[in-house]
Each structure stands twice: as structure tokens, then as C-alpha cells.
Amino acid sequence: MASSSSWTRKQNEQFENALAKYYKDTPDRWHNIARAVTGKSADEVRRHYEALEKDINKIENDQVPIPNYNDHRFLKNLKLQ
């Protein structure tokens, strides 16, 4: 079941729900999660999880710069809804 590396909002929601259902010690965890996420393989959901873990670790270790909200370029691109 091959697919592109991009994830839709719906797939991310399915992924989050499946993560809540299938804990780390669940047998065949990635296969179960993949069955819950439309169009994604076990390998794709595992890689997605690992990428999210890396992002969280960077944030927790202050390796992500805090945006400068006074930067006019940032404010110009900000879309308020």
C-alpha cells in the first residue's frame, strides 16, 4: 500500500486516534495503526511517528528558535481569521 509522504488533516486525525488506541506494547502496533490510517503503510506510520518524536525532542531541548513576532515580514505573512 504505497502512498506519498504527505499527510492530510484526516490522516493525521486517524493517526492520532490510532496512537491513543494502540499503546507501545501492542503487538503489531504499526500494522494496526496503518489499518486505521487511510492509504498509509506500517512503515509510513512508524516513520511519521519517529519524525514527530524528533520534533518534540528538539522543542523540549530548546533547539527550535522562538519566532520574532515583531518581525514585520512575519506579521505581513500572518493571516488572521
UniProtKB/TrEMBL annotation:
SMART domains: SANT (SM00717)
Domain SANT: 2-57
Myb-like domain ranges (all copies): 1-53
Gene Ontology cellular component list: nucleus; ribosome
First-listed, main subcellular location of the protein, grouped into a coarse class: nucleus
Cited Pfam families: Myb_DNA-binding_2
This protein's name: 60S ribosomal protein L3
Coiled-coil region: none
InterPro entries linked to this entry: Homeodomain-like_sf (IPR009057), RADIALIS-like (IPR044636), SANT/Myb (IPR001005), SANT_dom (IPR017884)
Species this protein is from: Salvia divinorum (Maria pastora)
GO biological process per UniProt: determination of dorsal/ventral asymmetry; flower development
Keywords for this protein: Developmental protein, Nucleus, Ribonucleoprotein, Ribosomal protein, Transcription, Transcription regulation
Keyword Nucleus belongs to the record: yes
Subcellular location: Nucleus
